[in-house]
Amino acid sequence: MFRSPPCIRNALLKPTFTCCIRTLSTSSALLEKPLPPRIVIPEKDIIETFLKGSGPGGQKINKTSSAVQLKHLPTGIVVKNQETRSRDQNRKNARRILGERLEEIEKGPLARTALKAEKIRKKKASATKKSRRKYRQLEEQAAGAASPESGKEERYEDTSKAHAADVGAEQTKQSQPTVSTDGSNG
Q1: Is the pTM of this model over 0.70?
Q2: Is residue 143 included in any domain, yes or no?
Q3: Does residue 80 lie within any of the structural domains?
Q4: How far is CA 1 from CA 5, 7, 8, 99, 137, in A?
Q5: 92, 68 contact by CB (below 8 A)
Q6: Residue 85 belongs to a domain with what CATH number?
Q7: What is the pLDDT of residues 131-140, one digit of tens each?
Q8: Is 183 domain-assigned?
Q9: Which Gene Ontology terms cover its molecular function (predicted)?
């Protein structure tokens, strides 16, 4: 059996054109700024200890040392994690949390967590603004629909009052006794 060299095999697997990339959604992922890369913490800067967990979980959590405690030597930050029953998963989670805290100290408002929080805050503010705009528009439509009808009713009331005043004036003229000079009433 003939095998092609690895460079040809890789060329066949990877497309060589990248000019025709299309997004399938209305919001383009290419327009968003990428988040900064995560901080890599050197192993020599960390003291890692495994502890017995505490809290709910019964006898199993009291007997196994699956909780992880990391101490960052240069800053003195201590992180303890016991989210899962797996020691490996807890190690990953503790390192991620420690990296986030170190990044917040180093970069401040340009840290990944701060950028994510800002993005979430902006989305929430936009949704709130959209909701307020929607309800304001509904109120304006309701007020706009009610005002022409109430205006028509007022016009009808005004004309009926005017008509009643005219009719009342005619009736009072007719009901007043006329006094004649010859001495007979009405």
Answers
A1: no
A2: no
A3: yes
A4: 13, 18, 16, 50, 73
A5: no
A6: 3.30.160.20
A7: 999 999 999 8
A8: no
A9: translation release factor activity
